[in-house]
Design brief:
Blueprint: E1 3-5, E2 10-12, H1 22-29, H2 34-53, E3 66-68, E4 74-76, H3 104-107, H4 115-130, H5 140-149, H6 160-169, H7 185-189, H8 199-203
Length: about 210
């Protein structure tokens, strides 16, 4: 139904998402307002929370995998690195993901669980609000050392609520990370940064 082939090609039919990658929009604008970042972040958190409830961790959160539909809503793409049957307390060990977004527990070759996705949200939201990655070096060995050892620094331009949210998501210990407990996404949704979000309306795209 959703694929066909020619003499020398196998073709997949996919949904048309005409808003482009979030990467394109942030590259053009350099930084998003906190209001815009809050909206995108909330939609991403809602989507990941749903996946986690279904026992799925995503593991490849990055700007290039986030698309905008015609109404400006987030769509998560590329589920190639997803892992199924991961609930609270369950772990996996595969080293995978995009270097700049890898959580410390993945780099340490530890068993890891769904909190890796919340680290990814922290990196994404830092990018959106601060205009750069929280940890970056062209040399991946240096980059990984920074992720493991360096404390994240915040620009003065962001509010205290934004700083507190990012600091919570970028805690290196997954057990202490915001969202790392049994309540998962719910712990993030009640953070003061998201106090203006009506989660039911958001879910219904109102």
């Amino acid at each position: 139904k959703y694929s066909f082939q020619t003499a020398d090609r196998l073709c997949f039919v996919m949904e048309y998402v005409n808003g482009g990658e979030l990467f394109f929009h942030l590259s053009r604008e350099r930084v998003f307002t906190e209001e815009r970042s809050r909206f995108y972040g909330a939609e991403i958190i809602s989507a990941l929370g749903y996946l986690h409830e279904e026992g799925i961790i995503y593991r490849d959160l990055k700007l290039e995998n986030l698309l905008l539909d015609k109404d400006g809503h987030i769509k998560i793409a590329d589920f190639g690195l997803c892992k199924e049957d991961i609930t609270y307390g369950s772990t996996t060990k595969t080293f995978c993901g995009t270097p700049e977004y890898l959580a410390p527990e993945v780099l340490e070759d530890n068993d890891y669980g769904r909190a890796v996705d919340w680290w990814g949200v922290g990196v994404l939201m830092y990018e959106m609000m601060c205009g750069r990655l929280p940890f970056y070096n062209r040399d991946h060995d240096v980059l990984f050392t920074l992720i493991l050892m360096e404390e994240v620094k915040f620009p003065r331009t962001i509010t205290s609520e934004a700083k507190d949210l990012l600091a919570g998501l970028l805690v290196k210990d997954p057990n202490r990370r915001l969202g790392g407990g049994p309540d998962d996404a719910k712990d993030i949704m009640v953070h003061p940064f998201f106090s203006s979000i009506n989660w039911n309306d958001l879910y219904q795209k109102k």
